Amino acid sequence: MAKINQSSLLVGVLLLLWGLAAAMGESKEMYRDPKLPIWVRILDLMRRMSIAEKIGQMTQIDRATATPDIMKKYSIGSVISGGGSVPRLQATAREWIQMVNGFQHGSLSSRLGIPMIYGIDAIHGNNNVYKATIFPHNVGLGATRDPELVRKIGAATALEVRAAGITYAFAPSVAVCRDPRWGQCYESYSEDPQIVQAMTEIIPGLQGDIPANSRKGVPYLAGKNKVAACAKNFVGEGGTMRGISENNTVIDWHGLLKIRMPAYYNSIIKGVSTVMVAYSSFNGVKMHANYQLITQFLKKTLNFRGFVSSGWQGIDRLTSPPGANYTYSVQAGIHAGIDMVMIPFKYREFIDTLTDLVKKNVIPMRRIDDAVSRILRVKFTMGLFENPLADLSFIGNLGSQAHRDLAREAVRKSLVLLKNGENADPPLLPLPKKADQILVAGTHANNLGYQCGGWTMTWQGLEGNNHTNGTTILSAISATIDPRTQVVHKENPDSEFVKSGKFSYAIVVVGEMPYAEGYGDNLNLTIPEPGPTTITNVCTNIKCVVVLISGRPLFIQPYLPFMDAVVAAWLPGSEGQGVADILFGDYGFTGKLPHTWFKTVEQLPMNFGDAHYDPLFPLGYGLTTKPVVAE
What we know:
Structural class: alpha/beta
Strand order of the largest sheet: 12-17-16-15-13-14
Number of strands: 17
Strand content: 5-15%
Helix content: 25-40%
Largest sheet: 6 strands, mixed
């Protein structure tokens, strides 16, 4: 009964305020006055909006579909760049700004002039934009155990996103990956929810520090040098059965609150602007249709006041095949509490379907008003009504040396030393810079695309060195060693070549090929060939250190006896110099495993604290070294 009375009181207050606003006259556009409280501006604008304009605000489309005329005609609320959706290949920051402003001019020329919000998957830096700094993926940042560093990366990412004229980043992922077979495990900071909680410091980096007197749950953005953040993907990702993307997470309520939910508490307290919903299911209920978790828990219990976004074509995937019953999908998604729907192409079908559902009272108008008020709250908070257009003042931040230095520091702190000699053998690392001749082998030694991984320039990532700026590990090695040391590079040398080369030692860099999401689901987690062959040919014949480039722990137990040293380098991004900094002792190893390293995949899922816990290397493991003092 108390809940009914409280709800009735709220409705009464809103009606009263609506009436007062209306009494002040249609001509006075209070929503344009930045001196007024945000709630007054929201009410004033919403009372002027038609059903079509409200539904338009709930619509999010890809830039490939958008035009200024479409933005104006349908009052589209948001435009996005999906992975690889760019103005043109290797577009400059100036070209990005021109494109974004073109769409914004369309929005501003609409009847009410509501600005759109432009979003992009800035997963590890502004990774869709040519020449941006590519930071290590989250799995590597989790290995640093350094929330302050992650906060700085958030601030740098915000500047590089703003450099392209963009105001909204679909980051961070606060998923807790408990099974490395999952293809998005590199987007997770750790299997430990406490580590993931600590890393939500990236949110104030992206958005700014929420004021001390701010109401909890209310979105916040500090200024033009910040961007709206997105905690994702709500909730249960990283725990799906067998690590399969979009699968079912089976867990009791206590487990959900203990493992899956904590990072969302921190994100909301820190003023995160938006939350994106997961494709996966929770105990058999698709998250995109989960009213209890989205509306009852996230919005009401946790008092989240920003807006909730769907995933890419997320509501379509409520049926199998996707889109088989689109009317049901729209009804279920909106009823569950999704406010902004990522279409991203068939926007007219979505608008027509939702309009029909509202007119037939299948979806009540109060649900639409809830969604639109949340979207407007974020836009007002961001200052979009006062500063809707991007300018050129942030262009110099894109790929700046300061940001590359920060990324290099992150690489150094993310590397985890798994092995360094054995028993009576002396440690191999740090390597001497002075040697007659050294061998650098492996598919990943001279491949910037491989070391950056997925979500780099495209959704699935790329191979090669011509897609963005950065330093390969091979180039970093060559720049670090003594000028008189000869470096021989051969991707996959045979044993005879290795034995005949008179090498002082070898550095073997192998690992996974780039992937993202479901394409990365992997039930065996072996190192792809020719990686194992290269390890065998090199490491059975000379002293070697193996540098693993991967988004998760891999099956390495058979090769461990003949690898003298092993380094988990994760997906280090564009600044490969950070790897050489550590290998040659300019800095010491400090990284700690963010995930349990398994012996065999048959053990999975296996996490710290499990009764059957028997890892190759436990969560938190990492050998340390001291920097070499220069002579």
